[in-house]
Write a structure and sequence with these properties.
elongated; 468 residues; five-stranded mixed beta sheet; 12 helices; four-stranded antiparallel beta sheet
């Protein structure tokens, strides 16, 4: 009896905690662990952007799986750094990547952030600055082996303004200047946006040990010269070296008219480097939140109707045990939704469908147990023994059916993970969590309720209370 009271106390505590989580949207900080408690909605419910990318290589050329995975990881880091809530970035097939960005409305910005190659170069411009936005050639285009040296600046080729005289119909072919790359972005350890003393956006960067050495050597020898920051061969800033930079830290000043969002996008691109696999856009979709609100409303109605139908059946058919099963089912619903918020699980429309389905499946264990219970009561056993025998003999069937469902969920989850079907994966995840929770409520919670509340009753004296 002490064990049963202990179980009842644990169940009551779980119910209180689950209800608190269900009706709370807050951020907690406990013992140094920070956790945000909120309901996370997927793309189809919150609205946002879905982008389908494909490797931009010939169709007969295979794409290395490792390179594709690295590309996926870089894209995921970029969209995470932009503050996108619960993005989904996953490989679909052998050459495609699916990107889902809930809550994002600016398609152009999202695409630019994802696809930008991010080749950063620090270029020696000599005594004359290069205008911002100018596209240039660098020694990276000619001899990559020379790009990471710290030797004095090369003698530049003639400037682009020098032209040959016109002779007849011969076209003008100006000599193009090639600028020397001092260092590339692979030596960049970190980059973050900030505002300078004049409230203008800039990007502060930190170099690794090798980059610090190269930068210190170059800036010490070239005070008063211009050092341009070049991204994908386009000049974004060309500051003058005012003093040696020996600590491996500096800033990239943004051009006129730039915003802090531009600085953030640049910092994200610099932090996560170039994409190993070139990508092209196959399809883009803008999903509005109106569809999501309607889906949530209809799903809520479906869940209430489903719960009420199951509850009504259990009470009419099993009477008092059915009422206790409904209480356990209510705890199950509150507990599962609390788990969704704590993990958190991103709720999609198929995910909600899996949750609603699991409500109906959660009473499977109760039905098996109650049918066994009625058999034992008809055989003349006391209610206490009938409850124990009913659970013991129903357990193998409950165990096998739930394991079969969990195996199916695992197969669906792997399928969704490997083929970019995030909705299938959401359905499998919510259904699996629901099945696991139903085992707890169906076996331990319902059993505790039956023993604590019915041990003092006589089923023979009140057979109608037990559907006999």
């Amino acid at each position: 009896m002490r064990n049963r009271n202990l179980w009842l106390a644990i169940i009551s505590l779980l119910a209180v905690l689950a209800l608190w989580v269900d009706f709370t949207e807050t951020r907690i900080d406990f013992l140094g662990i920070q956790k945000e408690i909120r309901t996370v909605l997927g793309l189809d419910l919150q609205g946002g952007i879905q982008i389908l990318l494909e490797a931009d290589v010939p169709s007969n050329q295979p794409v290395d799986r490792g390179s594709l995975e690295d590309t996926r990881r870089i894209i995921e880091n970029r969209v995470n750094a932009l503050g996108v809530s619960e993005p989904v970035v996953q490989i679909a097939g052998t050459r495609r990547i699916v990107v889902e960005l809930p809550g994002v409305t600016n398609l152009e910005q999202a695409v630019n952030t994802i696809k930008q190659t991010g080749l950063l170069e620090f270029v020696d411009a000599g005594a004359t600055p290069i205008p911002e936005g100018t596209t240039i050639r660098t020694t990276m285009d000619i001899s990559p082996t020379e790009t990471m040296t710290g030797t004095p600046a090369l003698t530049p080729t003639p400037a682009v303004t020098e032209t040959a005289p016109l002779t007849g119909t011969t076209p003008v072919s100006p000599t193009e200047r090639v600028y020397r790359t001092i260092m590339t972005g692979r030596n960049l350890r970190n980059a973050r946006p900030q505002l300078d003393q004049f409230r203008q956006p800039e990007v502060a960067f930190t170099l690794d040990a090798e980059g610090t050495r190269i930068f210190a050597e170059y800036t010490s020898q070239n005070v008063g010269r211009y050092l341009c920051i070049v991204l994908d061969k386009k000049v974004i800033s060309c500051p003058v070296i005012q003093e040696p930079i020996t600590q491996g830290q500096g800033v990239i000043r943004m051009g006129s008219g730039s915003t802090l969002a531009d600085a953030e996008a640049l910092a994200v691109t610099l932090r996560y480097g170039a994409l190993p696999v070139p990508l092209k856009i196959v399809d883009t979709r803008n999903i509005g939140p109106t569809l999501g609100r309607e889906s949530i409303h209809r799903s809520l109605i479906a869940g209430i109707v489903g719960f009420a139908t199951v509850a009504l059946f259990m009470i009419l058919y099993y009477r008092v045990p059915g009422v206790l099963a409904v209480l356990a089912l209510s705890l199950y619903t509150a507990l599962v939704f609390a788990i969704f918020k704590l993990l958190p699980v991103t709720l999609t429309l198929p995910g909600i469908a899996g949750f609603v389905l699991s409500i109906g499946m959660a009473v499977d264990a109760n039905i098996l147990i109650f049918e066994r219970l009625k058999e034992e009561l008809r055989a003349g056993r006391s209610l206490n023994l009938a409850i124990d025998y009913g659970f013991e003999r129903a357990w193998p069937s409950i165990r096998d059916s739930n394991i079969s469902t969990l195996i199916t969920c695992a197969i669906l989850y792997v399928f969704g993970l490997n083929f970019g079907a995030s909705m299938v994966r959401g359905f499998a995840l919510t259904l699996a969590i629901g099945v696991a929770a139903s085992l707890f409520t169906g076996i331990w919670v319902t059993r505790a309720f039956l023993h604590v509340l019915l041990d003092r009753f006589s089923a023979q004296a009140q057979p109608r209370w037990f559907g006999l």
